[in-house]
Design goal:
Radius of gyration: 21 Å
Number of domains: 3
Strand order of the largest sheet: 6-7-8-3-9-10-13-12
Bound molecules: adenosine-5'-triphosphate
Number of helices: 12
CATH class of the largest domain: Alpha Beta
Structural class: alpha/beta
Distance between the termini: 44 Å
Largest sheet: 8 strands, mixed
Order of helices and strands: EEEHEEHEHHHHEHEHEEHHEEEHHE
Shape: globular
CATH topology of the largest domain: Rossmann fold
């Protein structure tokens, strides 16, 4: 059953009297128990989507169209129009978040335990002693000694704080966890541990996951399906393994080329996408990736390709692959030497 339905979501910011079209007509679904990743380079609109889902957009940000339905046996709510009371009711129990910066999310004046206990007691009728016991168990599950319930956030290392956040987000076994760059600020080994813990805990709880990251290896380790974002739009959606082995959008292919191989082989060439994403002010007609795309044709400048179905379960927004061309084969035929991806 579908748990989250994001339908035609558009979000704008206003800054210096200009309108920034940060998210433009994005639609995707997450099934119960499914892990979905949103991936794309900085500024593509991923965090804006996460903030809209949580109703945490800053004052200058506004959802201009679309809906975000959260639906299961006990909830049916459009998160865009829900009241703060309705949101408070589902927070922790149905919707929890692990954010980019745990230090900001954890309140510095309360102990870790006090914050987890409060979340538990807000939603469940349990004694403080029971909630404290559960907080300790949760911390142990993420590899933190349960004595640490009485520590303040600043007394923990960055990695421990992030794990404490994960423990807290899982405290009420929420239906959906939104993890926005949960490992970005951490060293590689801690990153691996944290991803393992998100994986194990969400397996145990059986919840859905929306993983937001610029790092395709994080998506490939944790997600069943992936949506690739570029300049505020979804340009490709499908099962992670299929999308990463046989991309249907040139931007996805570019992203993959720019990363070391997912298996960690070091002898492959890294190839970068030249140029920069467009500014999202006064948006021109046509495909937003056109200026950076080695496959671009005249028609790509005339209208913006819509996300269209490909093989079952897959969608991409590209005229070239919609015509059935395979990006790998087509590359040698159409792309001149000067237009090829640049080798690093
Ligand atoms: N508060 C804001 N005011 C004005 N513009 C903003 C604001 N926040 C984000 N933007 C703009 O909206 C667009 C999308 O940004 P967003 O942070 O959602 O992207 P992202 O893919 O999550 O990138 P990152 O990983 O760097 O956070 C960008 O052009 C960004 O500059």
């Amino acid at each position: 059953m579908t748990l989250l339905t994001v339908d035609d979501l558009s979000i704008e910011y206003t800054a210096d009297e200009k309108t920034i079209k940060a998210v433009n007509g994005v639609s995707f679904e997450i099934a119960e128990g499914e892990r979905f990743g949103l991936v794309g380079e900085s500024g593509s609109g991923k965090t804006t989507i996460a903030k809209a889902i949580m109703q945490l957009l800053p004052k200058n940000g506004e959802v201009t169209s679309g809906s975000v339905e959260l639906t299961n046996d006990s909830v049916s709510l459009d998160l865009v129009t829900a009241s703060s009371r309705e949101l408070q009711d589902i927070r922790w129990k149905h919707l929890a978040t692990v954010s980019q910066s745990a230090m900001n999310a954890l309140d510095p004046v309360y102990t870790i335990g006090a914050q987890i206990i409060e979340a538990i007691q807000l939603h469940e009728d349990v004694s403080k002693a029971e909630a404290r016991e559960r907080a300790g168990e949760l911390l142990e599950r993420v590899g933190i000694d349960k004595e640490r319930v009485d520590s303040y956030p600043h007394q923990l290392s960055g990695g421990m704080r992030q794990r404490a956040m994960i423990a807290m987000s899982m405290a009420l076994e929420p239906s959906l966890i939104i993890a926005d760059e949960p490992t970005t600020a951490l060293d590689v080994i801690t990153q691996d541990h944290i991803l393992d813990q998100i994986d194990q805990l969400s397996n145990a709880v059986g919840n859905s996951l929306l993983m937001i990251t610029h790092d395709i290896s994080v998506v490939s380790e944790t997600c069943d399906r992936v949506g690739v974002m570029y300049a505020g739009e979804l340009v490709e959606v499908g099962p992670t393994e299929e999308v990463f082995t046989n991309p249907e959008h040139p931007y996805t292919k570019g992203l993959l080329n720019a990363f070391p191989t997912l298996e960690g082989e070091s002898d492959s060439e890294l190839i970068t996408i030249t140029g920069e994403p467009p500014k999202l002010i006064d948006v021109e007609p046509g495909c937003k990736f056109m200026d950076r795309c080695p496959y671009a044709e005249a028609r790509c400048g005339e209208s913006d390709p819509a996300l269209t179905p490909r093989t079952p379960g897959r969608e991409a927004a590209c005229f070239v692959t919609a015509d059935g061309y395979d990006l790998e084969e087509h590359y040698e035929q159409v792309v001149t030497e000067s237009e090829k991806w640049q080798k690093l």
